[in-house]
Amino acid sequence: MESKIPEIELKSLEDIKSYQNSRLPELMDYLQQSSRFYQRMFSENKIDIKKIKSTEDLKNLPITTKDDLQNFGHDFLCVNKDKIIDYVTTSGTLGEPVTFAMSSKDLDRLTYNEYISFACANTSEKDIYQLMLTLDKRFMAGMAYYLGLKMHGAGIIRNGPGSAKLQFDSIERYKPTALVTVPSFLPKLIEYAEKHNIDLNKTSVKKAICIGEPIRNTDFSLNTLGLKIKEKWNIDLYSTYASTEMGTAFTECQLGHGGHHHPELIIVEFLDENNQEVAEGEAGEVTITTLGVEAMPLLRFKTGDICYHYVEPCSCGRNSIRLGPVIGRRQQMIKYKGTSLYPPAIYDVLNEISEIENYIVEVSTGSLGTDEIKVIVGSDLQTLELGKKLKEAFRVKLRVTPEIEFQSPTFIQKQLFANESRKPMVFCDYRKSSNIE
After folding, report:
1. Residue by residue, what is the 3-state secondary structure of the chain?
2. What are the structural domains, with CATH classification, of the chain?
3. Is residue 231 a contact partner of residue 354, using CB atoms and an 8 Å limit?
4. What is the predicted pLDDT for the residue at 93?
5. Residue 434 has what pLDDT?
6. Is-contact 105 71, C-beta < 8 A?
7. Which of 169, 226, 243, 362 could join 374 via S-S bond, C-beta 3.0 to 4.6 A?
8. What is the Cα–Cα distance from 200 to 206, expressed in whole angstroms?
9. Cβ neighbours, 10 Å, residue 197
């Protein structure tokens, strides 16, 4: 069978760099001609685009931020409105949602991106995928997964999120081989299966593409959530990282050693707080320059996501860089009682305790101007013993103990999806200096 790995990903890092260098001048010319935002940026900063000839030259350019997108969104548009085919919006996790316009060419690019991304997870026309996420509400990812799987010729079941009963009804009826889901929903499926005497390991499902949440630690071992799933359901777990802004995904292969970079579609840098590139082995903010985007291309856009990157070739044959699990988001870093941490570290503690069904983490500014954390826990067993167990788990894992409040799982579930949010709003930042809702 013909390999679904793009030829460029089998090349050396030097060849990949040379390829991207050949694409960069074309992008710079396009931005100069078509983007009001970048025209203004180049002019105000006296940028001669003819001097931007390689990816090393990118360091001479200013960065683009989420604030830029929110404040000057229309100025990023490079095509007339009659060329726009689809409108999508970001989830608004770090502020007001941003609208992205997509041309027909952009949809083709998005389809190809997911085609080669699903190929990382050994997808073929023999697979049947159950999509446990929304395809409406201007959600790019749901559409992208559908289009990529269609290009593979795989079967698709558009189930949408929630309702364990509906998910298992579809599993029984249509025999899907794979799921696309937020991984924190899988323990709920496991719990439903146990209550209804369903033998998970005898179902047709053999793998799950996990979106939106990490399932691995930075050493690629499964984190608490990943272990919780694998303990009861022996399926292959593939992590994937993407965002609306980049229109590109980093998906793991079967080895589970980081998401693979698609150099045809995106240039990626890893920057510190001073916008200097970090070395391999150092955590840096994922900063992207899109290639092949027609309607709203981005140049040196800082995503807010903090990751490690890896440059050694993968034994699957791909030689492009690999992206480690998201450690956290720069804007969400918490400084609590002398300890700096990101929300995923808190989630990891909570996911380890079986009595907890769901939760919300709130951060606010205390009377002394310091960060304060409240964890609102959804559990049917609101006992003194559970409270002590939870506090001890925080002390052992994080060395600090946040304020803990118990509520019913039903109450928490309503709060997670308040205002018809398409993603669960697990983290709520109420700090005075924060722009997060």
Report:
1. CCCCCCHHHHCCHHHHHHHHHHHHHHHHHHHHHHCHHHHHHHHHCCCCHHHCCCHHHHHHCCCECHHHHHHHHHHHCCCCHHHEEEEEECCCCCCCCCEEEEEHHHHHHHHHHHHHHHHHCCCCCCCEEEECCCCCCCCHHHHHHHHHHHHHCCEEEECCCCCHHHHHHHHHHHCCCEEEECHHHHHHHHHHHHHCCCCHHHCCCCEEEECCCCCECCCCCECHHHHHHHHHCCCEEEEEEEECCCCEEEEECCCCCCEECCCCCEEEEEECCCCCECCCCCCEEEEEEECCCCCCCCCCEEEEEEECEECCCCCCCCCCCEECCCCEEHHHCEEECCEEECHHHHHHHHHCCCCCCEEEEEEEECCCCCEEEEEEEECCCCCHHHHHHHHHHHHHHHCCCCEEEEECHHHHHHHHCHHHCCCCCCEEECCCCCCCC
2. 1-329 (3.40.50.12780), 333-429 (3.30.300.30)
3. no
4. 57
5. 47
6. no
7. 362
8. 10
9. 6
Cβ atoms 216, 222 nearer than 8 A = yes
Structure confidence at residue 437 (pLDDT): 34
Give the chain's mean pLDDT. Answer: 93
Give the pairing type, strands 99-103 and 84-89.
Answer: antiparallel
Tens digits of per-residue pLDDT, 47-63? 999 999 999 999 999 99
Residue type, 407: Q
Given the structure tokens 């298992």, which residue do they identify?
168
Q: How far is CA 94 from each of CA 66, 212, 357, 358, rounded to the nearest angstrom?
A: 9, 14, 25, 21
Q: What is the dihedral of CA 362, 436, 114, 293, to 10 degrees?
A: -170
- Among 244, 224, 228, 208, which residue's Cα sits nearest to residue 110? 244
d(CA 398, CA 286): 25
Q: What is the dihedral of CA 298, 41, 67, 421, to 10 degrees?
A: -30
pLDDT, tens digit, 9 for 90 and up, residues 79-119: 999 999 999 998 765 557 889 999 999 999 999 999 999 99
Residues constituting the chain: 437
**Which residue has tokens 């548009």?**
77
How would you class 17 by CB atoms within 10 Å of its CB: exposed for 0-12, middle for 13-18, buried for 19 or more? middle
Q: Look at 3-7, 146-150, 299-303 and tell me which has the smallest mean pLDDT.
A: 3-7
Burial class (CB in 10 A: 0-12, 13-18, 19+), 228: buried
Take residue 276 and report the two structure tokens written for it. Answer: 């200097």
Task: State the pTM of this model.
Answer: 0.85
CB 332 within 8 A of CB 342: yes
Question: What is the C-alpha to C-alpha distance for residues 240 and 113, in angstroms, rounded to an integer?
Answer: 12
